[in-house]
């Protein structure tokens, strides 16, 4: 089922969240496939899939992603990556990815993916990036034909447990004028700090190339520190466990009194954006220290304390979600209205890796869209 077709409403059903202009910063290409596409591509390649009907396959992904462990959660990607090993497969997946973002009201998206995972059928690293960009361009054209204008940038990602960081960084820089706007490292976080890729991050710094780093999801404050100081991260992928560096001293009916540790203070004071993904954070156990329901997520605490919070899907297929749905469940959990949802989008627009002038245009478009809601 294509979840982007769902309409999410706010404030007594008067406002369509789906139609509001939104910015998606943390959205994995291999976590956003349509189930039917997986089935068709697998059939063409002679690959077995866990289910033969799209609804059943969608349910399989959702069930297996709800593991409470990032390592187990990541195993579901074997099924999606397997069908993304040809130029045609990558292009189709990227095109549909953009079409689904457009259907969800996204006006700017940054899609991250790891080219090193798509080489088993003979493609080179550069060919994979070119194939994905072709699909992105086709998706943008299709959206424009349907009256929706959006921008999409690639975040080329290195796998943190592998040893190709510098090679992937150089790949990203080679394509900086052909669709790639940033770099990331992803994969199993615990035991694989950003410092393992220090050479890649040093190179990216010399090239003045933007970096976001997965950190504070399956590991804690030291991982975040490594992302900031070894990786020179301009954003934190998830970053939810920054809340471990916040001590609640006391609280009453109206106020919570806290002390920020040095890392939390640094992240807040320098407005380093947090790419929070509520549903995914529940599925992977990233918020296990606080509870196992959405109301336990430290999202609202971080927002109220002035952290630069953004809302993201992470993997739309695995979490059976959309950006509109993530905003809807946050609104239900914490009583947010249009003002707060606009704050999150303005935060994301300011945090994007677009040039300043384009970020300013994005902010104006978001403000206008919310004013009309």
What do you see in this structure?
With 373 residues, this protein is α/β, with parallel strands linked by helices. It has 15 helices and twelve strands. A four-stranded parallel β-sheet has the order 3-4-5-6, with helices on both faces. This is adenosine deaminase. One of its GO terms (molecular function) is adenosine deaminase activity. Its EC number is 3.5.4.4. Its cofactor is Zn(2+).
In short:
Helices cover 43% and strands 16% of the residues. The chain has helices at residues 35-45, 54-65, 70-75, 77-81, 87-103, 125-145, 165-174, 198-206, 221-229, 262-269, 278-283, 299-304, 323-334, 338-351, 356-371, and strands at residues 9-10, 15-16, 22-28, 106-113, 151-159, 180-186, 212-215, 235-238, 246-251, 256-260, 274-276, 309-311. Strand 9 and strand 10 form a beta hairpin.
């Amino acid at each position: 089922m294509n979840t982007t077709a769902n309409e999410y409403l706010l404030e007594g059903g008067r406002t369509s969240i789906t139609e509001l202009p939104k910015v998606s910063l943390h959205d994995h290409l291999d976590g956003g496939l349509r189930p039917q596409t997986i089935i068709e591509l697998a059939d063409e390649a002679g690959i077995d899939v866990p289910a033969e009907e799209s609804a059943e396959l969608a349910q399989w992904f959702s069930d297996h992603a709800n593991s409470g462990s990032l390592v187990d959660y990541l195993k579901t990607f074997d099924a999606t990556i397997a069908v993304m090993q040809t130029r045609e497969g990558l292009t189709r997946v990227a095109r549909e990815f953009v079409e689904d973002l457009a259907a969800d009201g996204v006006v700017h998206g940054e899609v991250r993916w790891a080219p090193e995972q798509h080489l088993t059928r003979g493609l080179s690293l550069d060919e994979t990036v070119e194939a994905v960009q072709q699909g992105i361009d086709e998706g943008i054209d299709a959206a424009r034909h349907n009256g929706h204008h959006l921008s999409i940038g690639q975040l080329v990602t290195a796998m943190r447990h592998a040893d190709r960081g510098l090679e992937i960084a150089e790949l990203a820089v080679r394509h900086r004028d052909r669709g790639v706007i940033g770099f990331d490292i992803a994969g199993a976080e615990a035991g694989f700090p950003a410092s393992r890729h220090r050479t890649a991050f040093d190179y990216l710094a010399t090239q003045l190339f933007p970096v976001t780093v997965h950190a504070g999801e399956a590991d804690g404050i030291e991982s975040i520190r490594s992302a900031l100081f070894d990786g020179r991260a301009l954003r934190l992928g998830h970053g939810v466990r920054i809340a471990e560096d916040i001590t609640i001293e006391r609280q009453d009916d109206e106020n919570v009194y806290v002390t920020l540790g040095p890392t939390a203070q640094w992240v807040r004071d320098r407005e380093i954006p947090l790419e929070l993904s509520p549903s995914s954070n529940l599925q992977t156990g990233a918020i296990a220290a606080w509870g196992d329901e959405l109301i336990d997520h430290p999202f609202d605490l971080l927002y109220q304390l002035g952290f630069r919070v953004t809302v993201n899907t992470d993997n739309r297929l695995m979490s059976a979600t959309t950006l509109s749905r993530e905003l809807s469940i946050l609104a239900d959990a914490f009583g947010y209205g249009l003002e707060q949802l606009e704050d999150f989008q303005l935060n994301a627009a300011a945090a994007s890796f677009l040039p300043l002038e384009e970020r300013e245009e994005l902010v104006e478009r978001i403000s206008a869209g919310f004013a009309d809601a």
